[in-house]
UniProtKB/TrEMBL annotation:
It comes from Cognatiyoonia koreensis. GO terms for biological process: phosphorelay signal transduction system. This is Uncharacterized protein. InterPro entries: HPT_dom_sf.
Length: 139
């Protein structure tokens, strides 16, 4: 088969290595909003509030994933903005930033950017869950 494109992709040689990139940094987390919630509400009520907020974020991210699977890019920006706002309120700055970038990519209907930023949002949220529980244990 002959390639008609000017810049055809070179075939990958058998035995090529694949490099897996791993995130080794720490998640950007602003502990002040969480500390304020715990100080204002007390430990039991604050823990319930934080759990409810994290569940809300998880549900919204799940809805975004559904929109992505259905290629409904136009339905992604609004829930992405909501995720960014909620995450920002409890100090999950990296999650908020990833959600903002996802909303921008969806507005531009850039499928590759949507895929990348959605994956980043998922990773950030998973890391944020661990960070929030670590913070909670230190209170």
């Amino acid at each position: 088969m002959k390639h008609d494109t000017l810049f055809a992709v070179a075939p990958v040689q058998a035995g090529s290595t694949v490099t897996i990139l791993q995130f080794r940094g720490r998640l950007a987390l602003d502990p002040d909003p969480l500390a304020e919630i715990y100080a204002a509400q007390g430990e039991d009520v604050a823990e319930e509030t934080v759990c409810r907020t994290l569940a809300n974020l998880a549900n919204r991210i799940s809805a975004i994933q559904d929109h992505h699977r259905q290629s409904a890019f136009g339905d992604i920006p609004l829930p992405a903005r909501r995720v960014a706002a909620i995450a920002g309120q409890i100090g999950l700055t990296e999650v908020a930033l990833a959600a903002t970038h996802l909303g921008n990519a969806a507005t531009q209907a850039d499928g590759v950017a949507i895929e990348a930023t959605l994956s980043r949002l998922e990773r950030c949220f998973d890391l944020a869950m661990s960070e929030v529980w670590s913070f909670r244990d230190s209170v």
